[in-house]
Design a protein that fits this description.
This protein is mostly beta strands. It is about 5% helix and about 35% strand. A four-stranded antiparallel sheet has the order 6-7-8-9, with no helix packed on it. The longest helix has 6 residues. The termini are far apart.
Length: about 170
């Protein structure tokens, strides 16, 4: 185990904006709680909380790697609409103590998916409890008949029930 230092700096900071991952035209990760890991001269990596990732499109693989600074990484394959990316997602489930902030979070290979920052104010400038246009888009289908997220519960009564039209 190596400790980050001046010769190999690693910083982990909360993202100052919302981040998303899009795969095959679907948003599969959306988080206002992402972390940005900057390691030495490598490009920054966005780590997403597992709860903010659509895990139904990920399958755990037996692939593993080791980083002397972070520990052992496990991998997932992405599969959606007949397209797959083998070992396209990684996680440090039990990283070394200096990297404990990324424990259980998921990171994606940027050459396999689209990872991008979203201006939260532009997504929902009113920040009220009503659904935003962006939220509505994620609950509609992408052209293949399947919704990107679970449908909302009905907000009206079925006609003929409880005072509806008969």
């Amino acid at each position: 185990m190596k400790i980050p230092g001046p010769d190999h700096p690693i910083t982990i900071t909360p993202a100052d904006q919302r981040w998303r991952v899009k795969f095959e035209g679907h948003v599969i990760a959306d988080s206002g709680g992402a972390l940005i890991l900057k390691e030495a001269d490598y490009p920054p990596v966005v780590y997403f909380p597992r709860d903010d990732v659509s895990m139904e499109y990920l399958t755990r693989t037996t692939h593993a790697t080791h980083c002397p600074y972070k520990g052992d990484a496990a991998y997932y394959t992405l599969l959606m609409d007949g397209h797959f990316v083998e070992n396209g997602v990684w996680t440090y489930e039990s990283p070394y103590p200096a990297m404990e902030l990324i424990a259980g979070r998921l990171a994606f290979y940027p050459n396999e998916v689209e990872i991008y920052a979203v201006d939260d104010a532009a997504v929902n400038p009113r920040h009220v409890d009503e659904p935003s246009v962006d939220d509505a888009v994620q609950h509609t289908d992408a052209g293949d008949g399947r919704a990107q997220r679970e449908p909302w519960p009905p907000n009206v009564n079925t006609p003929g029930m409880e005072g509806g039209v008969r």
